[in-house]
Amino acid sequence: MSEQLTQEQVKKLSEAKVLIEKQKWNNASSLLESLYEECMQDDINFLLVESLYMDHQYKSAYDYAIDNMTQYLNSLKLYKLMVNVCLESRHVIKAHQFSLMTDQIEWRKSANTVIEKYENDISENLSKTNQEIFRQFYHLGDEVFIEQKRRVEMAEQLPLPQYLTGVKFLLRDPFTHPLIRSSLLQSLLELNETGPIKFYWIDNKEHTVNLSVLDRLEDQNFYKKVMNYLDEKVGNSDPLAFSMISSEFKLGMMISYPLSQSIMPNYHDWIDVMIQKYHGDVIDSKYHSVEEWQKKINEIIENLVS
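That's the TPR repeat-containing protein sequence above. Prediction below.
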């Protein structure tokens, strides 16, 4: 823990621990929430999430835990807590994804048993609710981007088999927004799905990609190379340009994922054109192909709220 607690904060933490021992979860969570706002330490976060969970404040527990998620891999107790918090707050898919983040096979087996039991329970007790969520998820192509995003978030409440059925259909639906399609593909990677999968892409054609050899966007070497090149070009000389161009580039990469590299055979040209446009320069005709793809991506970005 990097931040040193003041004497007053140490006193508050001691009081919270006493309340936890007495199982006064509501009082403990209130005190810890106040303390965490002052000092965002991992140990305080763990106690706060535990107190909120035991007080049945599952949504709040999830909100505090999710920003610190990787720290919940530090022990079996914390790992189990995170899985349970995800489930009780109805983030079923996140529970699956988190459970797979550890290399501890026995931990995974234990989590899988808990998750499967939860999925069986909600399949019986929330069958009508799940059917409606699945129906809306399956037909999200009828809606604008914001509503599509909301339906994807709701679908994370579904049991994994239903979720995967919906995802595989939506990846091939021409009306699924490219950003939604990108996020769905990456969610499959976080679920350790493997093998070939078909998807519709921004060239209005269907393609196949092997999930077994696909990386998440930010893990791709290509993405890292381009960001390094942009940093070299304007990182020090024009930080504002770097910030704006890097944000636009990342959005473009997400829209064109997972075939971004196919439209940027020379990423130096791609970035150079973006920099020239930022400065209002005239673009050389030799960059016609780059301009055409950037225009297509920009049209998709502009239509996000339409």
